[in-house]
Amino acid sequence: MKRRKCEDLLVQFKGDNIKLKSEKLNFIVSDRRDVYNITAPFNIDSEIAIAGRVEARDSEHSRIMFFKEVDKAWRVIEGAPVFDLQDPFVTKIGGELVLGGVEIYETGNVEVPICYRTVFLKGESLNTLKRFAVGPDKMKDIRLLELQDKRILVFTRPQGEIGGRGTVGYFIIEDLKELTIENIKNAKLLDDMFYKEEWGGANELHLLEGGNIGILAHIAKFDEAGNRHYYSSVFTFNYETLEYSEMKLIAIRDNFEAGAAKRSDLIDVIFSGGLIRMENGQAELYCGVSDAEAHKILITDPFKF
Asked: At residue 124, does pLDDT exceed 80?
């Protein structure tokens, strides 16, 4: 597998001249906070729901809330739980909903008073979601997928001494009880995924055919002025042969409607939330945009071969 720089991926993506249809989603919360970094719609409690990151424009204090579409707007589901977490993601394992998010917490350490980690909850309904696992400190983008044989594929994103600015690892477990900090830390890395000045991670895993997994991902970098640039991307991974493909871009900020940004350094940021694959060979990509809004975009199914 040959790694590719953001700039090279951008040139290829723009050269493909892909036609995309985008739409800004209307989320309504009582105090007009921003809703972004959403999941794709999923079935729960006999409804179609979206989980979203909700926070004020001038704050990083975030909550995960659940929404359903009513009269062309996404409105808070009455009675649904609210979690003090960021950047939700969902999957189904063993017939239960698994919800993950990033928790910001106080460490009790004067030198490093605040830290973050990924936490996991599961339940048969929104109101029965209970916390069951936690990831290592300073690790986001841990994603799960139930395989055909009921084992569970786990993708990780170490950074620091192992992983640099952020790379991708994987391992397979038999049961969610094995989703431990030790196992996550010992994940095997996908070699040569990113250049050291760039980073990326998995956002959602899709079960394809023949042992192949489609990974909705992101690749990112800083420019010379310190501005962030995040692009939506995909690659495939075969959990039987352990082979994986080159990454390719599927959407960039310019493909979406104009809108607000949380800060000027976050204008060129999209966060891959989820992908709904359709039978007609197209797919709907749901994204957080510029850390302030939620959009969706209609694209060619990137995993349709």
From this structure: yes
CA-to-CA distance for 117 and 134, rounded, in angstroms? 7
The helix/strand/coil state of 290 is coil
**Joined tokens for residue 244:** 């994986």
Counting residues of the chain whose pLDDT is more than 70, the rounded percentage is 99
Each domain of the chain, given as residue ranges in start order, spans: 6-300
* Alpha carbon distance 122, 93 (integer Å): 9
DSSP for 194-212?
A: S-TT-EEEEEEEEE-STTE
Two tokens, residue 39: 């999941």
Closest CA to 292 of 67, 69, 27, 77: 27
CATH number assigned to the domain with residue range 6-300, chosen from the 4 options 3.40.30.10, 2.60.120.620, 2.115.10.20, 3.40.190.290: 2.115.10.20
Under 8 Å between Cβ of 21 and 257: no
Q: Dump pLDDT digits (tens) for 201-211.
A: 999 999 998 88
Ramachandran angles phi, psi of 266, nearest 5°? -115, 10
pTM (two decimals): 0.95
Report the C-alpha gap between 139 and 159 in whole angstroms.
Answer: 7
